[in-house]
Amino acid sequence: MTRTVGTLTVVRDPEALAQAVATCVGDEIRAALANAETFSLALAGGTTPKAAYALMAAAPLRDRIGWADVRFFFGDERCVGPDDPQSNYKMAHDNLLEPLGIDPAHVFRMRGEDQPAGAARQYAQTLRRELGSEPQLDLTMLGMGPDGHTASLFPGSDPLEDDAQLVRAPYVQKLAAHRLTVTPRVINASKLVLVATAGAEKAAALAAVLRGPRDPLRYPVQVVAPGRGRLVWFADRAAAAALP
Ligand code: 6PG
């Protein structure tokens, strides 16, 4: 079965992927800020975003974007404190937010150090307070794991379970840990969703996700389908190797 999956851009290697992602994010922010006062960006964890953040925080992108007008959110978080090496917030802080000198009042992190269910409820309130009762992010950045997970929606439980909520705290069996994650409801309300993935270990999953039958229990990233927004996939050649 073939599905409409938005656009897929394949680039040479992980460095080119980070560049493509950083450029896409930068172009989107610049274009939107021509007509709006602020831009809401949900950040992701993972290796590709990390490299992209470093490029966004360096010339020329550093100087071309009205970073002071961007509001930073998170798509998912590990249940650790903000100084923990595992924290997605710490990664974004060290590679993007601090180098750009972003005002901490413009950064809305998930509180991984709190009790997970309470932290999820609190982040849902944050999203509603900052973005309205039906939060619509301007851009949600995502990655995809070799198992087809995205944000912290992992295989084995229905990613659409509890989709009435905005944020959940699923217990992920294979990690033996809780995670915090926005739900597909939030992802799919975004104006733009960008999924970036690199490496040969993603090739089988990417082909199954984009060309295989719909099976979000197995490949949660298949639920990504922004209703009124756009979806762009970026992959390096290794990740795209199993696609026809
Ligand atoms: C996280 C992420 C996660 C990530 C994928 C892909 O917190 O780890 O948000 O969903 O995007 O695991 O990660 P890589 O880009 O490192 O392969």
Strand pairing plus helix content: what structural class?
alpha/beta
Count of helix runs: 7
What CATH calls the topology is Rossmann fold
Q: Distance between the terminal alpha carbons, to the nearest Å?
A: 13 Å
Strand count, sense and barrel status of the largest sheet are: 6 strands, parallel
Please state roughly what percent of the residues sit in beta strands, choosing from under 5%, 5-15%, 15-25%, 25-35%, 35-45% or over 45%. Answer: 15-25%
Order of helices and strands: EHEHHEEHHEEEEHEHE
What share of the residues lie within helices?
25-40%
Which term fits the overall shape?
globular
Radius of gyration based on Cα positions: 17 Å
Mean pLDDT: 96
Tally of strands:
10
Stretches with pLDDT under 50, minimum 5 residues: none
If strands are numbered along the chain, what order do they take across the biggest sheet? Answer: 1-10-9-5-2-3
CATH architecture: 3-Layer(aba) Sandwich
User: Class in CATH?
Assistant: Alpha Beta
Taken together, the total number of domains comes to 1
Small ligands present: 6-phosphogluconic acid
Structure description:
This protein has 244 residues and is of the alpha/beta class. The protein has a single domain (14-196, 212-235), classed as Rossmann fold (3-Layer(aba) Sandwich), CATH 3.40.50. It has 7 helices and 10 strands. It has helices at residues 14-33, 47-56, 61-64, 88-100, 116-131, 184-187, 203-211, and strands spanning 7-11, 39-43, 70-74, 76-78, 139-143, 167-168, 171-172, 177-182, 192-197, 230-236. Helix 1 crosses helix 2 and helix 2 runs parallel beside helix 4 (88-100). The two termini are 13 Å apart. The model has no long low-confidence stretch (mean pLDDT 96). The structure holds 6-phosphogluconic acid. 6-phosphogluconic acid binds next to helix 2.
